[in-house]
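Example 3.2
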Amino acid sequence: MPCLNLSTNVSLDGVDTSSILSEASQTVARLINKPEAYVMIVLKGSVPISFGGSEEPAAYGELVSIGGLNPDVNKKLSAAIASILETKLSIPKSRYFLKFYDSKGSAFGWNGTTF
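Structure, written as tokens:
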């Protein structure tokens, strides 16, 4: 049940968000080695963000997963998501943070129960 929650100060009006969601979903599934059917991507635009005292394009993300995360995977995920944000939304890689949470299944509800 990996969930990638991305917030950016870039407006998503006129942006092909489907391609961002699709690419991010496939990337997370592949790198965490989880079925894409369980991957959730949340993308929020026009969020007020100041990074380094500047409101230039920036993004913040949090990725929660039940297993599958480790320092090597996290590094690959950070690079891959940064590349998507840079290509699709013109957010420089230096203006993006991604926080990782490796959680227990009992901490998440789904389908009327927990994992």
